[in-house]
Design goal:
The strands form four sheets. Strands 5-6-4-9 form a four-stranded antiparallel beta sheet. A three-stranded antiparallel beta sheet has the order 1-3-2. The C terminus is likely disordered. With 467 residues, it is an alpha+beta fold. The protein contains 18 helices and eleven strands.
Amino acid sequence: MADQKLETVEPDPSSTSIANDTFVNTNATMQEANPTADASAKIQTNLPSTDDVDKAIAEVEARKAEKETAKEVQMETTGYEAPKQNHDRTVEEKKEPSKKVQEGQKWNNRDRNGKPRADHKKNYKSDLTSQAESSDPVEIRKQVEFYFSDSNILQDKFLFKQVQGHDNLPVPISTIHSFKRMRHFQPYSAVVDALKDSATLDVVGDDLIQRKTALPEGIKDKPMNEIQKVAEDEAMKRSVYVKGFGEELPSTQFDIEAFFAGFGPTNSVRLRRTFAKLFKGSVFVEFDSEETQKNFLSVEPPPKWKGQDLLIKSKKQYCDDKVEEIKAGRVEAKGDDARDWKTRRNEDQRNNNRKGGDGKGFGNHRGGRGRGGRGGNRRDRDNDRRHNRDERNVPKVATTAAPEKGESQTTAEAAEAPPEKDAVRAGPPTASETAPESGSKKRAREEDHEAEEGQAKKKLDTKDDAS
């Protein structure tokens, strides 16, 4: 077979699309002249039209109208507004607890009688955060040194726990700076720098503060109330009691401190408060020394507060006078209760019964959990009574006497059987039972009643046998 030659055919240049080439070349030329033209054209093409924007706004308004209508229907049908969904709440509302959480908090903040506990913190009128911003190093050291002084730290449970008593552990400066009376000291670096020059405190690593001298070792392993009492007794000799400062205002704490600063250095000025944290109008002031305290007490004429006379005496004299008033019966001792434990128990039970008890020994008296509570043993007594009956539901009677003529066999068998627990005895009491002893009268009455009941049962059995 002869070889055939394959011939390649060149494409005809005239068959190419001149129009397409012209478009491509033109488009390329435009991109080289203005590279951002194509991108801006695409963006303009993707922008929504005015009609689309108006339509979207109308849809949003329609949804809002539907929600408002639903709220109105909810209020008309149920009487309360439906809770907001999380996406419907504003930023401020999201920061606050939900209604369910708030209701739970209110319920938890109730006493054992179901009444809301009073928020005594609201009775504090002095605003300790109202001071102007300051970076005074002297004031910073004065305040922090007071916190760690023996006059305060032995009375301050929080700080005492932080330093672990005699162990003298360092405390973060940031913790001290978070106290209300420290927040106006700004910036934080100024506080750290000021404490580095303290005479009684050491800065550890630029972020911790520590006493240079640890607390006495004798306080180790002692309860806090005992430590506080010792500290109070030691400070008594340089302390005074002053009354007559009137109603508490936001600046009362600072005003009283400034008042006593004019009579010498003070370690502390403590406003006295009631159990509900209301200001009593009196203060305990601890001066830096006993000499300063005596100088204040000897001031003539006695100092006045805003033109009003003050009752001034040493703290020891105040305590002695209070003891005499308690002895005379003019004042009731705080925390004292002269009632014995039985009286307290009976009165507590009566009070609980009036308020509605919970069935645990108080209130409705449905059975106590201690000795003598009837409610817990009632079922056992009923079971014993049912078990001490024969097949005819007649109570079994245990007796040592021989069965009489005509007595039922069940009764005779019961007489021969050993006496069961809580069994009722029939017949006259024996000589040993009538012997005089403690409580014999009560026992005799019980035996007489049981004997009569046994005789009645015996007659009932005899009548049944005869029939």
